[in-house]
Design a protein that fits this description.
Length: 235
């Protein structure tokens, strides 16, 4: 019988080389797979984070007390964190609110450093958004309100509103209702005789004009971007 003879030693060596090659291939594949898993986990952990906290403020409205140079300025204050990566799902670009406050400032156009600050904090878990608003003055004090405008937008109903009163004697009080007529100085129409105060508000600034300063004082009051407090700039 003719044919090629195969040495048993050569056969065993071939099997060993084949097995070694197989182990080398699978070992490399496993290493690559674990490397990808580790990198993926690191990327996922990095993606599920938030940026450093930031402050956002906005002057909601301004009103002047009749016959005076006193202004009431309503400021919405938010401290929030913007998300990174996967944290944005399913609402990309929605920040996590850490703190929100309605800040009301009583200021005097003649004494820009004489500022009274009234702060009401609202739990972000209970109030998705807040909108502070100056209402006006009565004999017993100064009134403002705070609403959650997101409720009316979602449920097609009036936004829940909380009312507050402040005066020098009692300080801040939450009240159920406000007087039917609240006084505030008109900011439009002809310039009145005697004591008056006109104002123009921006996102974070308030310009003022009085009978003592017929020329507008630009940025007479401005929100500090670092603290969110309203400051007088003409002191």
């Amino acid at each position: 019988m003719s044919g090629k003879s195969i040495d048993s030693k050569s056969l065993n060596l071939g099997r060993i080389c084949k097995n070694a090659g197989g182990l080398g291939f699978h070992g490399e594949w496993r290493r690559r797979f674990y490397r990808c898993v580790v990198i993926g986990l690191l990327c996922w952990m990095t993606a599920c984070t938030y940026r450093d906290p930031e402050i956002y403020t906005d002057i909601e409205n301004v009103r002047a007390k009749p016959g005076t140079h006193t202004l009431a300025v309503a400021v919405k204050y938010l401290k929030w964190q913007w998300p990174n990566g996967l944290v944005t799902f399913p609402n990309p670009g929605v920040p996590k609110v850490l703190r929100q406050e309605a800040r009301i400032y009583l200021v005097n156009a003649d004494l820009p450093d004489d500022i009274t600050q009234i702060v009401v904090a609202f739990d972000p878990k209970e109030f998705l958004n807040i909108a502070p608003w100056v209402l006006g003055w009565a004999e017993d004090g100064f009134y403002f309100q705070v609403t959650d405008p997101t409720v009316s937008g979602k449920e097609n109903q009036p936004a829940p509103t909380q009312y507050f009163k402040w005066n020098d004697a009692a300080g801040l009080q939450q009240v159920d209702t406000v007087p039917f007529q609240l006084a505030f100085q008109p900011n439009t129409g002809p310039v009145p005789d005697g004591v008056f105060l006109r104002y123009s508000k921006g996102h974070d600034t308030v310009d003022v004009q009085t009978e003592r300063h017929p020329e507008w004082i630009r940025n007479a009051f401005q929100v500090d971007p670092m603290t969110g407090h309203l400051l007088g700039t003409q002191g």
